Predict the structure.
Amino acid sequence: MSDFMNEGQVAYFKEKLETDQHEIITRVENQSINVVISDSNEMADEIDRAAMEEAHRLELNRIEHDKLHIKKIVKALRRIESGDYGYCDSCGDEISIKRLQARPESRLCLECQSTKEFTDHSLYRR
């Protein structure tokens, strides 16, 4: 357990992460079923087919995004079990409770996350 969070706070974040994980897994399963079902429909019109293909592409992108989010949640749950939850992976400082409420899977404090995003953005601009 984190030194700066009490047991109730850690339990709150664990429950929130587990609930989010369950909701995302359910959504991914439903999305996957929808993609398979709609794949079986034959479209006679080229425009309809193109629209369906674009919808599938977007759906598959969403599924991939959700799968990545699940991985982040699993890692956060592991950090709770190891007692490392709530501490920044970069600087070791506490991640604010407010940030964890917004993004309970956060691995970086706001300052380090901002620095990372600025650095990442700067790399893409070159």
Summary: The chain has a mean pLDDT of 87.
